[in-house]
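Help wanted!
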Amino acid sequence: MTVRIAVAGASGYAGGEVLRLLLSHPDVEIGALTAGGNAGSPLLAHQPHLLPLADRVLEDTTVEVLAGHDVVFLALPHGKSADIAARLGDDVLVVDCGADHRLVDAWAWERWYGGEHAGHWPYGLPELPGQREKLVGTKRVAVPGCYPTVSSLALAPVVAADLVEPEVVVVAVSGTSGAGKAAKTNLLGSEVMGSLSAYGVGGTHRHTPEIVQNLSAVADRPIGVSFTPVLAPLPRGILATCSAQLRPEAQDVRAVYEKAYADEPFVHLLPEGLWPTTGAVLGSNAVQLQVAVDPDLNRLVVVAAIDNLTKGTAGAAVQCMNLALGLPETTGLSTVGVAP
Amino acid sequence: MTVRIAVAGASGYAGGEVLRLLLSHPDVEIGALTAGGNAGSPLLAHQPHLLPLADRVLEDTTVEVLAGHDVVFLALPHGKSADIAARLGDDVLVVDCGADHRLVDAWAWERWYGGEHAGHWPYGLPELPGQREKLVGTKRVAVPGCYPTVSSLALAPVVAADLVEPEVVVVAVSGTSGAGKAAKTNLLGSEVMGSLSAYGVGGTHRHTPEIVQNLSAVADRPIGVSFTPVLAPLPRGILATCSAQLRPEAQDVRAVYEKAYADEPFVHLLPEGLWPTTGAVLGSNAVQLQVAVDPDLNRLVVVAAIDNLTKGTAGAAVQCMNLALGLPETTGLSTVGVAP
Amino acid sequence: MTVRIAVAGASGYAGGEVLRLLLSHPDVEIGALTAGGNAGSPLLAHQPHLLPLADRVLEDTTVEVLAGHDVVFLALPHGKSADIAARLGDDVLVVDCGADHRLVDAWAWERWYGGEHAGHWPYGLPELPGQREKLVGTKRVAVPGCYPTVSSLALAPVVAADLVEPEVVVVAVSGTSGAGKAAKTNLLGSEVMGSLSAYGVGGTHRHTPEIVQNLSAVADRPIGVSFTPVLAPLPRGILATCSAQLRPEAQDVRAVYEKAYADEPFVHLLPEGLWPTTGAVLGSNAVQLQVAVDPDLNRLVVVAAIDNLTKGTAGAAVQCMNLALGLPETTGLSTVGVAP
Amino acid sequence: MTVRIAVAGASGYAGGEVLRLLLSHPDVEIGALTAGGNAGSPLLAHQPHLLPLADRVLEDTTVEVLAGHDVVFLALPHGKSADIAARLGDDVLVVDCGADHRLVDAWAWERWYGGEHAGHWPYGLPELPGQREKLVGTKRVAVPGCYPTVSSLALAPVVAADLVEPEVVVVAVSGTSGAGKAAKTNLLGSEVMGSLSAYGVGGTHRHTPEIVQNLSAVADRPIGVSFTPVLAPLPRGILATCSAQLRPEAQDVRAVYEKAYADEPFVHLLPEGLWPTTGAVLGSNAVQLQVAVDPDLNRLVVVAAIDNLTKGTAGAAVQCMNLALGLPETTGLSTVGVAP
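Answered by r_m:
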């Protein structure tokens, strides 16, 4: 089977990563590549690492250009996906890397993003309990945010097993590519190299409600999430430090994680003594986890690493495409990072 | 007044930073510079940024070499300061950048560092309540650890005012110089650039008891501290994200910080809307703070930035020297960072 | 003596560095700070490292605001200085960090920058033969470009002594701050971290004619310069590798450099065996040099390091202000870098 | 066909990269993995990015362990390969990533490396004229050094066509992984981040004679090479700036490069207007080239980018294995980089 795919937003980071992965996917043929302001220019001017696509020129992002493909990946600014998706037929698999269809509650969407809620689609985090089966055969996928991916996978097992108090603290340090490719002064190399900064402090980052949604769903009751993202000087990678108060009766937390992820191809609880690094998952779809319990506080600390562009965005998109199309879930994806 | 100073451990990062600062201190004359394995080699081979000391050669770290100075800075591996300090006379001001004399409790020392406790000295964090007066005129100073400095200053005001529950969570992201200059594979540039890692997870980092000690002292009751350090790819700087559950009755937390640090020359609560970055304090003795309250959780989040080698080590050492000698506290120190 | 200074372009990197240096200059009072699009906003929003100026607000860059100061530093985009300078009186010292008044030849200006030549001012590289005396008492200074500073100082001694063939090759690796603070996609942290790129290849960088001008002047005949700049992932610093074919009769090149810079406070030929690094000059006004002769080719290779924002821009500006005002040349400047 | 391979030196950077590539090579089965001091420890402790090999333990580097494989990759310190290779049978394909068998002349070996010359093997740079055929079916491959790879490919076309004067200047900026994984103070993250340094200046780097050998061979006469390596703060990548005086009669240099590399799968002359970056080739086996002629000097400048660990070492090793075994040359290799 060869599926023909299109990528809308092919000049950005998410779109570029989708293409990087699909270039080694055996069942895919790369069709239309579209952009907004960059339409008309060669793809290579924006994605110089995609040499096999050196002859491609970016087209305008229109329904006409995108139609006629089996799969359309949308890597567009928030709020831009819903309209296009609505006009692509129900026979087209639409994988939305943006936020438009992630949140279930309309009021949450309006509070955090503003404007009308476009509705919610099957959520592309198959490793959450009960989630994989919703993705098999679907024609619409909402790819999770990068921070929700790593935070939810880090905490879901103990939250699902009701082993921790219902308030968790997540501090996630991220590389800069998660902030996108739009030129902003605060994201200049001169500003970010040699510096660390926090942003969205006090629960104001838009990924907060998505983490709350995920953890509350697996817990089947409200979970409070204190979430702070920190920007660090590297292009890719998120390292999340997630902690929660263990219930007094909680035993052998490590075994809970071992069991939860034993059959997952991409989520790896590291052997004791090794700790996740983002360098080890660079360019891969792997999630590396490690757990510890602070003996003085009986507090669980989970450290998790992903590549925000791969498992955090484009890798998840491809993984979900595989599920939606009935392909082996790991096709075209790797757990081997590029290090050092 | 000109005081004659010596630095033991002058080829390392802490010793180099002490010298960098003292080179612009108007009341200081730089005397003996000593090292361990690097003794006999030119200082410039180890500290190529200290051009005015280009003619200096490192001597052996012995009491004989260090004696005869008004002030001796010890920038030695943990456990090496106590013996030397004991043999320097009581008329010499000894400023210990190491951990030997930071912890009050002998059992805590033994648990976290091992071996016999050398006793505790006046703790060099003058911005903690009641601490400055203990440093005026002292002949012995225990310079705080870098993580305890930033964490304690971030949380002391609300802990002292009993506005938060007695368990706090600190995730502090640090540059690599805090790990020192000894050659280790995991600290190679190839390993740390492009990667993030956590270490000392689960409350196992030796700075944990020092933060507990500081916060418990200002609270006058035990404070639990969940502390996780994260290593990021930059040479200098710590950004600490510190959070705690506000008591229901807590009001106007910002005013508490404003009042606490109104007269402090080095601790700056930023105007609302600006957030600390480590780049802004690079090479300076400043602490930049900002506070937020998560409205959904009523949880306080404080973000604080320091340069781990300056306010986190050598700047504090010079600040305390000034206090001990009766000099203006800010002499030779700056709140101006080197950015970008 | 206290001189009152103004900075036009205070929200950019050059303007910020001028202010950083002047904050520790004993003879200066900081007056008006102006900007273009950033006028009206607090300086601290753009220069968060300049805490002592936290109460300052940026004004519009107009002659009215700048007038009435003893010294005006212009840190404006190329082409913007000439008009303002012409309208500031001859009694005001104007130090132009831009390119407008660097080139002597009008045709060279038109070829490389376009538009009308504004004329040339005394060139602010006092370490070039015969240059210092032109700066003493001047009311106008053209601060050199960063690449010309390091390249000219690296090669002037042997070019002046006619020890090399009249064609030199310079490859200079630079941090990103030299490209300024305007938001551009190719300067985003995500783009520059983990990557190296060349630009202005084939002699097309605008600093080429300035290096040619300097070296030809000291040689008193035309010198060809093959100049290639390379962008590397660090905020500050230029390391220039400069080479030239030695004439057969050339002897003891090292002694030529020793003699040329023996009395220069900022230019340091390192002891044999040590090589310049940009880290060692970070934030300082020092130039570090080292020389070698390739025995197989009889080719001289000079390696030189500067901080592009300090000696490469703002440090030179302050150094020239000192000369122009009759102050000691090194006032407010340092040869001590911030390392690591 | 499945070939069984072993890697000696599997805990280092070259060995790790060989394994990373072979994990996606369809014709390979990974056998013994050996190390020196790290023998006995899990591979994952040293190569945390190689999750599919998480169950492997490093064995001692002995002939007994390495024997019985179809292919043995040697990623050992210089001088350690010859003895082992001699004791592996002639039926085993030995691919030496070290320097032992690169140089043809025994005197050159002795001058640059010291000790006895182990002889030379077919040189693994198939893109050099006449080189590919020497690798087909060979049982011994000397993998080129990283700097010689990029420098030789950048200059070979014009040197072979006798279009330039016989002295070339190469300044190559490199990431730190080329310096290996042995813990050294000058390679610590704290030292290399935020700094640039030159080393091996004056033609003293051991890769100089290898570049001379390659270019002289394609020219069939001696070519002088002024080579200076520069260390920059990134883990991977080399950007080489290579220049040479064009002969007056040289015409249309670009066409020479187009023709030389038209059929090469890994060497890409970029479209005019685009310049190579190391970020674009990260983790790939691609070489990106661009050329310019300085009109004032009639000097050719070629800029070339590779990943030093991939095309510069392990990718070349796999490429040569493919040739030696009669597999398609590009098997298991990619021209798609991991960016940003």
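OP: Thanks! One thing I noticed: The mean pLDDT of chain D is 97.
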